[in-house]
Amino acid sequence: MATTEAAAGLVTKLPARLVRFFARYPPQYYSARALGIPSSAEELEVPTDRPSPYTPSRDAKAPKPDPKAHSPSLALLQTDPEYPNPFLPFKNPETGRWRGSAISLRTQNDLVKIANKNGVEELLPPGRKATVFKEVRSLEKGLRIKGTGVGQKVKGHKWERMLDVKLDVRKKAMMEMPDMIRTWKQRGHGRGWKKYPK
Q: Where is the composition biased (Basic and acidic residues) (predicted)?
């Protein structure tokens, strides 16, 4: 009885858009928790030691990724045939035809933002806009961005690459400045302004 009252109290605090979504797609059938999907990226074992797709020379060919390899991020996107996930495309078992997701990606993003703000994101169905999916995807695909691998760095602008050299030259010039002033004065250049006749 207490859980029913707590659930009723939670429903009154949620925005109307989420209440309508949960009325149409009840969390006990559609949520990630009901499908047995982990609710955080720490619970999944994401391999981060993948080889870099970039090669050290231009002549060498980059290794092609294996399309059949297990992907933790895609493993999050599950659906139950009895209760198809409204966030994912679904193949009809009778006709064999695919139908698009019932809810667009923009609406999914809005629902995830609202649910995250209210602390009930784990009650939503798993989808591409979920926070867990984005975290796992960034961990999984981290080495695909050039410069993020071990021993790599981003090329950057020319002024960023030359900044260390420029600062070293400037530091050396500042250290030699007292000697330069002393030699300037010894040659007679620092005795004041010459007065020219009118």
A: 58-69
Check whether residue 177 and residue 137 sit in a common domain.
Answer: no
Residues 140 and 161 in one domain: no
**What is 15-39 written as a DSSP string?**
-HHHHHHHHHS-HHHHSHHHHT--S
Residues 111 and 40 in one domain: yes
| Position 17 in a domain | yes
Other beta carbons within 10 Å of 174:
9
User: Of 124, 136, 36, 141, nearest to 85 (Cα)?
Assistant: 124
- Which residue range(s) make up the domain with 164? 155-190
Q: Which residues contact 157 (CB under 8 A, 6 or more apart)?
A: none
Q: What is the pTM of this model?
A: 0.60
For residues 78 and 36, give the distance between their C-alpha atoms in angstroms, rounded to a whole number: 10
**Cα distances (Å, whole numbers) of residue 135 to 43, 78, 92, 142:** 12, 17, 30, 10
State the amino acid at position 31 in one-letter form: S
- How many residues appear in the chain? 198
Q: Which DSSP category does 159 fall into?
A: H
